[in-house]
Records
---
Amino acid sequence: MKRPGPTHVEPPETDDELEVRPPKSKAAGLSSVRSSFAHMHRQGHSVPSAVRILAKMNQTDGFDCPGCAWPDPDDRAALTEFCENGAKAAAWETTRRRLDWRFFQRYSIDELAQKSDYWLGQQGRFTEPLMLRPGSRFYEPISYDEAFKRIAAELVSLDSPNEAIFYTSGRTSNEAAFLYQLFVRAYGTNNLPDCSNMCHESSGVGLGQTVGIGKGSVTLDDIHQADTIIVMGQNPGTNHPRMLTALQKAKSNGAKVIAVNPLPEAGLMGFVNPKSPAQVLSGGTPIADLFLQVQINGDVALLKALMCLMLEEESRAPGSVLDEDFIGLHTEGFAALREHLAAQDVDALIDSAGVSRAEVEEALHIILRSRKTIVCWAMGLTQHKNGVGNVREIVNFLLMRGSIGIPGAGTCPVRGHSNVQGDRTMGIHDRPKKAFLDRIQEVFGFDPPRQHGFNTVEAIQAMLEGKAKLFFAMGGNFLQASPDTPRTAQALQKCEMLVHVSTKLNRGHLLHNKWSIILPCLARSEVDTQAYGEQFVTVENSMGVVHTSQGHLKPAHEGLYSEPALIAWLAERVLGPETPVSWCWLIENYDRIRDLIAETIPHFERFNERVREPGGFHLYNGARQREFNTHNGKAQFTLNPAPDLSLPGGAFRMMTMRTHDQYNTTVYGNDDRYRGIKGGRRIVFMNEEDLLEAGIAPGSKVDLTNDFGGKERVAARFTVVPYPIPRGCVGTYFPEANVLVPLEKFAEGSFTPASKDVVVRVARSD
Ligand SMILES: Nc1nc2c(c(=O)[nH]1)N[C@H]1C(S)=C(S)[C@@H](COP(=O)(O)OP(=O)(O)OC[C@H]3O[C@@H](n4cnc5c(=O)[nH]c(N)nc54)[C@H](O)[C@@H]3O)O[C@H]1N2
Ligand SMILES: Nc1nc2c(c(=O)[nH]1)N[C@H]1C(S)=C(S)[C@@H](COP(=O)(O)OP(=O)(O)OC[C@H]3O[C@@H](n4cnc5c(=O)[nH]c(N)nc54)[C@H](O)[C@@H]3O)O[C@H]1N2
Ligand SMILES: [Mo]
């Protein structure tokens, strides 16, 4: 038999029709409305059908947007509580196109691998389970029963439950997540890596260590009431567009916004609320009062410089800067931080941050206006080797002025996936706390595994070493979301079995060693009918509000099952119908799952009752009330050295980021509108002076290389785009540049891959 060639794990080139325009300085406006409807139209929806779908999004009786985790305001806009990118997510999910076995008779996995990610995602919704047999290059249909039988047989035959890995992507509902972790732990492992490992894990770890809870402390009302909001390492115009409405409201209440970013992202600079005719006519409002264009990873240096200047100001006017009462009563470690700051060279810090002294002083002036300060952040801070340190330094900065646990002040890690925070609350965690496992034992009567499981990085390493043999994914696209793409592909292809619970085709489905199985499922926007009638699920947003999500649309296919139902079936096959719970009985009515959640997880008492209140309920958050759940009940000041940002001669520091036209690995289109890039994704943004110095012409093709750990990584034929990015820094798109992100370079303490700090060399392609 002819041996199959290697599967193409990298998206093919797509920059034949590249158009480059100057970047925009404002986000949204009418073009965002046009784009929303254009995307719905592309998926087969007429305007009335699009309006019907979008009108249900983020309403109290509707479905939660499957995009980001930004919270819903109390005064929701009837019918229009969505953004352009939420509309794209809805369009992608509710497409009228369907994908069945006939498609897979036409295309082998090798042919599919030649297609772009955009093309794969456009082929429609899965309608039936599919299986790839050993040696075959074509998926074929199988029954659910057969699929579960095979997966169960494989799970039962492993030498140890720790040879199986159960991944979760953060869109999974609370109900599905709770059942999933229960099944996985009853099966016998904590191997529950999730997308959070690659995302806000650094926030969870850094906040947990310092303020005793791995979640942000603020509510949406706090944002509206704040005097100063610092937005660091985040591109809200693209990734959390509804946040701009909240920032605008805060500004109209008198807040000042400071943006800290290597790029002048459109949404940080200005916003035209498309729902406000007055704004559309007047051209909108500015967002950032001050833009600090740091170099990549210059944030610790910036925060430290600010804190040094705060201390200088305090010695000039004692009592004017520090909140001595708060520090004395609620914190530990300030003396050591003060000593550490006294030993810093402020000019060197400012230099390392990449900004001017005048700008830092202007920031200080804004910050010292009030104590109601919020810091918002996302991937620009967490995806660094010092990602945990970045978060802890933000906490230091806030604690000094007592800017936590009072209205209008606190920490705001802005979460990505719509239920990534809820999944963690439900126990999707490779390192569960002892108290959580003890509770599982009390409620369900079995002894859950106590040994830590694999996070994402460890899971890839374990598969490469042959220590893990079955990979099961509850959603997501592990292949392309993970670092070092060829090695992740190699790792997955060493497994005996790959199982993907998915709604749509992605590159991860094209990997194959022995058995690959795709289990299609219902999407969030669709009606989920069980024995007791239509069910809703629940989610937790970025600010700890738990609320319902109810699908209204007819399912993409009558044979589709919900994620909770798929888990229950599998669990029944593997563990037996009543072990440790009556799986199928639970599925009849999701209230039964929620009753178990209420019994197991703190602060979910009377869950079924409280979640039915319109808008849901806020989970208890100690930091919000200055109850710090640390070893001594005090918030901790910490010492976090500023990273050494020197680069080897001729090298650059690369960040990987999202375009305006994608959802993580899902490509909606090729229009990164705000940055002025259309028609291509294999792009590298570079500073004009750097280009001159290197003798590289704009528009030319370059190869990017990285050799971390002695391994040569190449991303070939990227097109150079001159861009207002600091010198020494370059930017590329995720996931095209993931081939360059080293698996072994991750945040200390959280294992979050350092995908915003990849040292690369740039050379003209031959
Ligand atoms: N439409 C849409 N919405 C999304 C997503 C999506 O793909 N599409 N993804 C969702 C998910 S899972 C997540 S986690 C979030 C991600 O939301 P973001 O974190 O906004 O996403 P990124 O594109 O990674 O952007 C990172 C930003 O950080 C900046 N940056 C990079 N390095 C540094 C640094 O060292 N310091 C500072 N200060 N800034 C830096 C970049 O210039 C960029 O503006 O969005 C969520 N929402
Ligand atoms: N270089 C680099 N790498 C990164 C990042 C970066 O900034 N730079 N960001 C990281 C971050 S923040 C994250 S969160 C991860 C994302 O990692 P993942 O969450 O694994 O990736 P997604 O692209 O969000 O997953 C998309 C897939 O989910 C499936 N899906 C969509 N809807 C549903 C549904 O309703 N049910 C089910 N079962 N499946 C569904 C579809 O098959 C789709 O192809 O990537 C990380 N990787
Ligand atoms: Mo994320």
---
Amino acid sequence: MLLITALFCVLGSGLAVAQKTCPGYRASNVQQTSNSLTANLNLAGPACNIYGTDLRNLTLTVEYQSASRLHVIIQDLNQTVYQVPESVFPRPSATEGVAAADSQLVFNYTENPFTFSVSRPSGEVLFNTSGSALVFESQYLRLRTSLPSHPNLYGLGEHSDHFRLNTSNYTRTLWSRDAYGIPQGTNLYGNHPVYIDHRGAKGTHGVLFLNSNGMDIKINDTAGQYLEYNTLGGVLDFYFLAGPSPVEVSQQISEVVGKPAMMAYWTFGYHNCRYGYRDVYEVAEVVHNYSTAGIPLETMWTDIDYMDARKVFTLDPQRFPLAKMRELVAYLHAHQQHYIVMVDPAVAAQSYSAFNNGNSTDIFMKSTDGSNFVGVVWPGPTVFPDWFHPETQGYWNDEFENFFSPETGVDISGLWIDMNEAANFCNYPCSDPAAFAKAQGFPPKPPPVRDGPAVALPGFPADFQPPTKRQTMATSNKTGLPGRKLINPPYTIRNAAGSLSNKTLDTNLVHYNGLVEYDTHNLYGTMMSSASRNALLNRRPGERPLVITRSTFLGAGAHVGHWTGDNHADWSQYEISIPDMLNFASIFQVPMVGSDVCGFGGNTTERLCARWMMLGAFQTFYRNHNELGNRPQEAYRWPLTTQAARNAIDIRYRALDYLYTAFYAQNQTGKPVLNPLFYIYPRDPKTFGIDAQFFFGDSLLVSPVLAENKTSVRIYLPNDTFYDWNAGFAPVQGNGSMVNLTNVNFTTIPLHVRGGAILPLRIESANTTAKLRTKGFNLLIAPSRDGSANGSLYLDDGLSIEQTSTTFINFTYAGGHFSMSGDYSYPANVSIERITVLNVASAPQGIVIPGAPMSNFTYNRASKAVIINTTIPLTQDASFQLP
Ligand SMILES: *[C@@H]1O[C@H](CO)[C@@H](O)[C@H](O)[C@H]1NC(C)=O
Ligand SMILES: *[C@@H]1O[C@H](CO)[C@@H](O)[C@H](O)[C@H]1NC(C)=O
Ligand SMILES: *[C@@H]1O[C@H](CO)[C@@H](O)[C@H](O)[C@H]1NC(C)=O
Ligand SMILES: *[C@@H]1O[C@H](CO)[C@@H](O)[C@H](O)[C@H]1NC(C)=O
Ligand SMILES: *[C@@H]1O[C@H](CO)[C@@H](O)[C@H](O)[C@H]1NC(C)=O
Ligand SMILES: *[C@@H]1O[C@H](CO)[C@@H](O)[C@H](O)[C@H]1NC(C)=O
Ligand SMILES: *[C@@H]1O[C@H](CO)[C@@H](O)[C@H](O)[C@H]1NC(C)=O
Ligand SMILES: *[C@@H]1O[C@H](CO)[C@@H](O)[C@H](O)[C@H]1NC(C)=O
Ligand SMILES: *[C@@H]1O[C@H](CO)[C@@H](O)[C@H](O)[C@H]1NC(C)=O
Ligand SMILES: *[C@@H]1O[C@H](CO)[C@@H](O)[C@H](O)[C@H]1NC(C)=O
């Protein structure tokens, strides 16, 4: 029997813990069925108790849940140790599973010491714990897998590092944190302990660790390449996903975390926000300015400025009075535009209705003495809803119903939730929140009141014109071991906020159902997300809610979208916005995602904002947002930015149904709406490290310029046929090398259509998405090298969760033959008005489309494009042959 030694990290005191031998576990009573394996794991020697107490008796359960998914869980025999509650993370159903023999994954183990491996039937080892003893203690779990050298690993967020993870001396800490400036190498707002391991021709697999405790995941290559989980609690609960392609791994992740929620059509329009609009007049001015600048604004947002002294569910009676807010929203709705505001979880600890309602139902988090736990957020001293309390959803629904009432309140179309890590400005221990709030100036002083806007706002109502002057401790399974050190556990994770409880809720707080904040901290934001989605659904039953949240956990995408938090207006964060977004869309299954376009913190520049307005047009969630005190950065503020925004929104809107169809595919099948290059070219090693380019959908390659005064960019073009969007779709043959693009002016973003695609584009853009839906289509056929292409189009009413009639059309093109077939139930009332076929060798003699009036076609000898003007209704199959 092997005793395995390991190295331990340096304690805060600076003293190195001596190398210590942990005994590991011995497997016994191994029981195997065709689709499962169970065993007892008993401590195999004297306890080492390095960061807590070794648990003596564990169980192993291995389930072949599907051909591509293997579930391995090592838990305490008693099942007392905390596990992520089913109510927050429903487990994937695996009613019967598959026979081990039919699985793409092979589980193998050694009995003593117990180690396990997961391999492919070919023998390729994907996960192997044999290098190091398993440690399972009351407050520390460690599991290490060895990996091949120089692995291509992705995921393990939320982070702002490069998409392909550093694999040498690298620590990823997971612990929700109000991470202003989203610094690299630190724990950020959300927690998604899932990675993808891409091995090129040997395939791709995924490993999802279902654990919400604070943890450090260490990836290092000094004693051989390994990845090691160091977690403060929970159990070892793993889902291994076989792929074998990257897209399939993403789809298999969606089978575990849930398929992402479908979003309403309008949510893909352009959004504008900032922190620091002084009053409702300034909000109206911005709406007006977008309109006069000719930049389509779909949705106007307001940050916490609208609140009365920063209290949630209130309006500043002088700057954002209810009557004027209702007029503003009415104006927006009359123009087919939308309005969204921010809500924080923290409720001001003062007598007002939102506090009193919550206090009387007693749903706020409690301190150990049973009183409300008080921290400090924007309004000063605040309390925090306990999302585990059974009355909290009702409380939240009521606040939403009243405050956001379409009849009497602020009729928002969507919701933005922030500070839900939960963030608390007060340092631990927050013993005198009132004094802290006072000393730090919370709530901040609002701007002076004024009677109206500075300029006339044609079209707005007259009063928008410038003035003519308790606590029950449940005892049940999986709720946590007693007797733990919940504030300062023996093992210290690398939390950039300092100790676990610093700047958040105290980790010894006990939720209504007995769970402790120590175990559930990482769930707070995602629970607020679900409760807020439910509250929106309660207001408008049957409509797809848009909720954009800061903090997330595994599975958040089934409920909400995410913006990547408080970034900075600089070029490095512009660039890193791509991998940050790809993590969420392509791995974590939170496909509605985007950065604060033009940058939140600091002053942006005309050129950065112009470039970001264009890059942001290829985020699924597209919003410009700025921080209080910075130079204004609405898209119309500078000439270059204005033109860049017009150009990029024009492209985005023409391609909006292509986006909507791709998003729907992710909602239905988990296939990512955004793709890193290696998802499309998994056998091309040169793509594995690229994260400054990506595919919007699976066919539009986006390659932004990356620096302030640059009008050139070196991009990678795989060995494939592309068409240059900005050069009349001229064919470009990629050959698997870097290409230097020059003369990319400040209002252009390089875009290439991948050969083999058929894109359903609207024939022209529009000012709002409602208007856009009345435009006909231009089918762009971009053949691959072998002359074939395909694509699809999904249409529905754009809003309802349950659709009664939808249209789904498949388009194919091969050997000059085009055909479309599908189901045409949704009455779109528009037609395909144009078909553009690229790369046609010679002019067709004549084109006949049975059943469709053909006005004319042209052939452009230079670009080799055939342009067919026609009217094909979206009600029936059609086809034609290019002779
Ligand atoms: C628990 O593990 C110890 C060894 O550490 C073993 O002696 C004991 O029998 C186990 N108990 C059970 C209930 O399996
Ligand atoms: C497990 O349960 C047994 C019997 O109830 C108890 O004696 C033992 O202390 C428990 N072990 C742990 C680690 O909680
Ligand atoms: C499982 O592990 C044992 C012991 O290490 C080894 O002999 C056997 O070949 C392995 N089986 C497979 C299928 O990898
Ligand atoms: C990686 O290994 C080196 C050498 O053992 C060690 O100094 C370093 O702390 C390790 N890094 C991590 C993240 O564990
Ligand atoms: C490992 O990373 C840590 C933290 O980033 C750094 O302080 C240390 O010097 C690095 N060690 C090695 C061996 O690179
Ligand atoms: C798609 O989105 C809808 C609406 O959010 C949701 O109800 C559904 O579960 C999602 N996934 C599938 C496979 O329908
Ligand atoms: C909150 O409710 C408790 C009773 O549950 C009451 O004692 C307390 O005064 C209330 N707090 C405030 C500030 O109203
Ligand atoms: C724990 O779960 C077991 C098996 O599901 C059940 O028999 C037992 O009653 C549960 N214990 C508690 C305290 O809920
Ligand atoms: C809490 O954070 C503040 C601000 O970063 C820091 O000064 C303080 O040392 C931290 N306290 C603890 C207990 O980590
Ligand atoms: C940003 O610009 C504003 C003026 O618009 C100025 O007051 C502020 O100091 C600038 N901030 C920085 C960080 O340069």
